[in-house]
Amino acid sequence: LFSENLIHNKTLTCQALKDYISQRDSSVSMPSNIDILTAMNKNKIKENTCRIVWYLYETKLESASNTSFTGGYNKYLAVQMMPAKCTNWPELSPIEEEANRKLLICTLGNHFLLEEPNDRTMKRVSNDTYPAKKSAMSDFITNVRSSRQFLENKNTWDLSDIRDRNLKLGNLFTTKVWKI
After folding, report:
1. What is the pTM (predicted TM-score) of this model?
2. Which residues does 17 contact at the CB level (< 8 Å), separation at least 6?
3. pLDDT of 43 over the 60 cut
4. What integer pLDDT is reported at residue 67 of this predicted model?
């Protein structure tokens, strides 16, 4: 959109942005809520991008509660709960479900934001079972509301949990965070 000269045209409000996009050809468009909800389970996201999204979301949560979320972006890390190499996790069948796992583990719903994680601790448990990994992560989510609230009462973690979290995030993002 910046290449479309939004700054030069002084596109400063949400309505101005909507008007601008509606006047452009199909190469410039905004995703619908359905597009966003579908993409949550179908798009792989790099860990650094997950960290950015979770960090921005966390800063929004904290600004809404009038507390400060300080320390900067580099103080946080996004970590996959279900790892790419699932050696200590249950095997899935049929083959399609294993392929689905490879996709879902790279979605936003499988990533949790941690505050100043200890690299040795996280490497040690990277392929561990869910209870061991959750226990290790608990020290690093005390001040990270989005991670803490979701994990507090979770005793298991599987593909349905990732899908469920993606759906909740998609609904949250489309109705509250980036509402247009």
Report:
1. 0.77
2. 6, 11, 180
3. yes
4. 53
Share of the chain above pLDDT 70, in %: 76
pLDDT value at residue 72: 75
How far apart CA 106 and CA 87 sit, in angstroms, is 17
Region for 25 from its dihedrals, namely left if φ exceeds 0, alpha if ψ lies in -120 to 50, beta otherwise: beta
Q: Does the N-terminal peptide bond of residue 94 adopt cis geometry, omega within 30 degrees of 0?
A: yes
- Residue 140: closest CA among 117, 121, 120: 117
R_g of the chain computed on alpha carbons? 18
CB-count exposure of residue 142 (10 Å: 0-12, 13-18, 19+): exposed
Q: Are 112 and 81 in contact (CB under 8 A)?
A: yes
Closest among 157, 98, 97 to 130, alpha carbons compared: 157
